[in-house]
């Protein structure tokens, strides 16, 4: 009863489990059983569940059986109907089989035709496919053939375009074919080939322009020079005053002819403009364009630009390297400039016809580098040049060179600054050349006044030199001009020098004031340094005598007066008034004054030397007992020489002649005094004193004859006053007066020095002892001899007193 009492509590649980098993999927049976109480620990739980499960199964079996029994009759009826149909089915099968056989027999031909049709359709499709593929491939093949043809005719840029079309448009359509792969593999090789070929062409182009640079530059410089000359000719034609300013003397006709020639030349050039060549006419630039385009298409434009610029820099360095002998001829300079101009003309052309290959910054940098090198080269090589004509041609080349490159936009101010340095060197070479010309003129001069026989000869001289003399104009022909032939020659050479200096100053883009200043400075150098040095050297030459020195003084006087005409000459050339504040003045006055002073000094020196020569041939018998009664022959010859010499001095300025005469007389007096006091002369007789007195009398007579006008009173005779007082003292033997009045301003023998008197008296004393010249005194008047001894003692006392006082 206990078990029965628990059964009702468990049965609902078993029913739930059975319901879940029936209602759920087979895979969920396990979890249902596990989750239920089938396997609980209660006794007989499992068995009871199994019993419940069996009962459930039996219930289902009874329901199935009931279902089958209910449908069995229908199934039997269906089978019976099926058996009836079976016979009809057999008949139908036979009919169908027969029909199928007959259909198969009838369809064999159809099948054969159908298969033929299928084959034809397949062929047709294949043909269509082939045509389509060929239509795709033929343009590729045609393009590739076109590429090969372009390569063969060297149309590389077009070939690259063709390659680009092949790669981007045609080959992708047929990339599955093997020949396309071969093409694709070949295209990079062809590109490299094109790059190599175009680079080779570029190298040939670079070599070509290196060889043709001088011709390109020469053509460009010629055109620039013609254009400038033409512009100058137009300016001259429009400026009425230009001829007055620039066409002077013999240059006027020549420049006018040149102007006409230039007009004709440019008229011809206007008619034949096609003859004007450019860089593009002289050089084929297509390789560089082609190479640039090719590298740009290939994406290597920067590589090409770097390579081109690097190679051109190398060529620039080669072009800027001059030949060692360039300075020897103008052709060396011309070729050097032509190559440089050609180089930069090419660069300028490349700059304007290409985009980015060269830039203005690049060309400016290259030009600045080149300009520094050019200036250094010209400084060095021009310093070797000693020919002013070559320096002038160099200057003209530099001007054309600068004007040409300036026309292409390159700054050239530093070149014109360099020209100022070369101008100084040019002036130095001119000064050297003119120094030689001056020396030749001085060597060829006869240093005598210019004779003119008639009016024509006179006008020829004054046409070369501005000489005016109203007194000389009154004289009849033949007559002589005071200057020698070197004066007009020197004057003309100074003007030629100014012309030569002006030639360098032209085309320097300087104002007339600056040109005037340059001409005056260079002319001053010529006068103060070159001409002055030549005059100084001329004056010092040993073969230049007194006559020549006198003529040199006269010449320098006239040249000094002509300086104002040189001032006017420069002013006319430059059209700058001398009244301008900044106008320099010529220093000719000081130059010629210095030369005159030197010549005057040389005259004094040579006069003294000539006097010394006469003195040296003097042959006195210092022991003679009495004089000859007439002056010595050497002294008369000396006086005659002085007379003739001073006659030549008539053309000299008065003070010069007077100074020369006074200097000569003083030197003669001093020389005669030294002859008396010569230490080697031990004895002098009274007869020798008397003979010497006769000679001094002749000197005094010469001085009183006024050999040179202008002396007042006996000024010239005072040159011999020392000798005269000394000789009078000994001739009169007036020692008492001398000793009594010594030291007084009114003394009769004021100019006689005690030491001089003592020296001469001792010579006479020694002579009296040996030759008994004073024997008469000893016999007739012994007191006289004692007086001599007393005089000697007193003179010695005076000399000693003077020494102690000193």
Mind telling me the C-alpha Rg? 68 Å
Number of strands: 2
Number of helices: 29
Sketch the major β-sheet.
Answer: 2 strands, antiparallel
Distance, first to last CA: 193 Å
Shape: rod-shaped
Q: Please state the average pLDDT score.
A: 82
| Sequence stretches where pLDDT stays below 50 over 5 or more residues | 1-9, 240-274, 772-778
Task: Describe the strand arrangement of the main beta sheet, using strand numbers.
Answer: 1-2
The secondary structure category is mainly alpha
Q: Which bin fits the share of residues in helices?
A: over 70%
Q: What percentage of amino acids are in beta strands? A: under 5%
How would you sum up this structure, described in words?
This protein has 806 residues and is mainly α. The protein has 29 helices and 2 strands. It has helices spanning 2-23, 29-35, 45-152, 156-170, 178-238, 242-246, 251-271, 279-282, 286-297, 301-320, 330-353, 360-382, 388-407, 413-444, 455-464, 470-474, 486-505, 512-540, 546-561, 563-574, 588-616, 633-648, 654-676, 686-704, 721-732, 735-741, 754-771, 775-780, 782-805; strands at 450-452, 479-481. Strands 1-2 form a two-stranded antiparallel sheet.
Topology:
Blueprint: H1 2-23, H2 29-35, H3 45-152, H4 156-170, H5 178-238, H6 242-246, H7 251-271, H8 279-282, H9 286-297, H10 301-320, H11 330-353, H12 360-382, H13 388-407, H14 413-444, E1 450-452, H15 455-464, H16 470-474, E2 479-481, H17 486-505, H18 512-540, H19 546-561, H20 563-574, H21 588-616, H22 633-648, H23 654-676, H24 686-704, H25 721-732, H26 735-741, H27 754-771, H28 775-780, H29 782-805
Antiparallel strand pairs: 1-2
Helix pairs in contact: 3-4, 4-5, 4-9, 5-7, 5-9, 5-11, 5-13, 9-10, 10-11, 10-12, 11-13, 12-14, 13-14, 14-17, 14-18, 17-18, 17-19, 18-20, 18-21, 19-21, 21-23, 22-24, 24-25, 27-29
Function: Component of the exocyst complex involved in the docking of exocytic vesicles with fusion sites on the plasma membrane.
Domain Exocyst complex subunit EXOC6/Sec15 C-terminal: 415-763
Organism: Malurus cyaneus samueli
């Amino acid at each position: 009863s206990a078990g029965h009492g628990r059964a009702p509590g468990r049965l609902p649980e078993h029913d739930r489990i059975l319901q879940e098993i029936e209602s759920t999927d087979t895979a969920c049976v396990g979890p249902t059983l596990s989750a239920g109480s089938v396997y609980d620990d209660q006794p007989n739980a499992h068995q009871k569940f199994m019993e419940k499960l069996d009962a459930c199964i039996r219930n289902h079996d009874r329901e199935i059986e009931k279902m089958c029994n209910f449908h069995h009759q229908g199934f039997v009826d269906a089978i019976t109907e099926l058996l009836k149909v079976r016979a009809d089915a057999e008949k139908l099968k036979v009919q169908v089989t027969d029909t199928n056989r007959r259909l198969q027999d009838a369809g064999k031909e159809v099948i054969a035709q159908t298969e033929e049709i299928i084959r034809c359709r397949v062929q047709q499709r294949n043909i269509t496919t082939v045509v389509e593929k060929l239509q795709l491939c033929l343009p590729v093949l045609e393009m590739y053939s076109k590429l090969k043809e372009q390569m063969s005719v060297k149309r590389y840029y077009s070939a690259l375009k063709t390659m680009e079309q092949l790669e981007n448009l045609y080959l992708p359509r047929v990339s599955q074919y093997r020949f396309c792969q071969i093409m694709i593999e070949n295209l990079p090789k062809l590109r490299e080939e094109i790059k190599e070929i175009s680079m080779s062409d570029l190298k040939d182009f670079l070599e070509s322009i290196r060889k043709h640079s001088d011709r390109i530059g020469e053509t460009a410089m010629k055109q620039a020079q013609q254009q400038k000359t033409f512009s100058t000719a137009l300016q001259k034609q429009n400026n009425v005053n230009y001829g007055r300013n620039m066409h002077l003397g013999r240059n006027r006709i020549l420049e006018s002819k040149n102007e006409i020639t230039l007009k004709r030349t440019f008229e011809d050039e206007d008619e034949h403009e096609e003859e004007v060549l450019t860089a593009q006419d002289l050089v084929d630039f297509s390789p560089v364009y082609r190479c640039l385009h090719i590298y740009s298409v290939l994406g290597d434009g920067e590589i090409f630009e770097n390579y081109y610029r690097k190679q051109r820099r190398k060529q620039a360095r080669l072009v800027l390297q001059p030949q060692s002998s360039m300075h020897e001829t103008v052709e060396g300079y011309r070729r050097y400039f032509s190559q440089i101009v050609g180089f930069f003309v090419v660069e300028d052309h490349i700059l304007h016809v290409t985009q980015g290959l060269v830039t203005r910054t690049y060309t400016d940098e290259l030009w600045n580098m080149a300009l520094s090198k050019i200036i250094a080269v010209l400084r060095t090589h021009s310093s070797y040049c000693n020919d002013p004509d070559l320096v002038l041609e160099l200057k003209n080349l530099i001007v054309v060179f600068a004007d040409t490159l300036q026309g292409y936009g390159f700054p050239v101010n530093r070149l014109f600054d360099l020209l100022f340095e070369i101008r100084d060197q040019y002036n130095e070479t001119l000064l050297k050349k003119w120094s030689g010309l001056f020396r030749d003129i001085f060597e060829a001069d006869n240093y005598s006044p210019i004779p003119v026989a008639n009016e024509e000869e006179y006008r020829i001289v004054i046409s070369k030199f501005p000489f005016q003399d109203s007194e000389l104009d009154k004289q009849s022909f033949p007559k002589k001009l005071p200057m020698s032939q070197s004066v007009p020659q020197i004057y003309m050479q100074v003007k030629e020098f100014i012309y030569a200096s002006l030639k360098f100053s032209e085309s320097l883009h300087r104002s007339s004031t600056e040109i005037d200043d340059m001409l005056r400075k260079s002319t001053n150098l010529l006068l103060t340094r070159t001409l002055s040095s030549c005059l100084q050297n001329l004056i010092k030459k040993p073969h230049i005598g007194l006559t020549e020195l006198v003529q040199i003084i006269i010449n320098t006087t006239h040249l000094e007066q002509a300086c104002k005409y040189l001032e006017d000459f420069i002013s006319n050339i430059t059209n700058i008034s001398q009244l301008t504040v900044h106008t320099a003045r010529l220093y000719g006055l000081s130059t010629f004054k210095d030369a005159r002073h030197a010549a005057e000094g040389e005259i004094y020196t040579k006069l003294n030397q000539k006097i010394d020569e006469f003195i040296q041939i003097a042959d006195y018998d210092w022991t003679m007992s009495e004089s000859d009664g007439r002056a010595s022959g050497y002294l008369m010859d000396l006086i005659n020489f002085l007379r003739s010499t001073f006659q030549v001095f008539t053309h000299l300025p008065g003070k010069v002649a007077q100074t020369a005469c006074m200097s000569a007389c003083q030197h003669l007096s001093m020389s005669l005094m030294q002859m008396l006091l010569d230490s080697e002369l031990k004895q002098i007789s009274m007869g020798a004193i008397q003979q010497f007195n006769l000679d001094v009398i002749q000197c005094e007579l010469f001085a009183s004859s006024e050999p040179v006008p202008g002396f007042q009173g006996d000024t010239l005779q005072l040159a011999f006053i020392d000798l005269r007082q000394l000789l009078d003292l000994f001739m009169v033997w007036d020692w008492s007066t001398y000793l009594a009045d010594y030291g007084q301003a009114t003394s009769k023998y004021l100019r006689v020095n005690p030491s001089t008197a003592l020296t001469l008296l001792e010579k006479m004393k020694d002579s009296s002892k040996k030759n008994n010249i004073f024997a008469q005194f000893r016999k007739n008047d012994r007191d006289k001899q004692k007086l001599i001894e007393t005089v000697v003692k007193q003179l010695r006392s005076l000399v000693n007193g003077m020494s102690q006082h000193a």
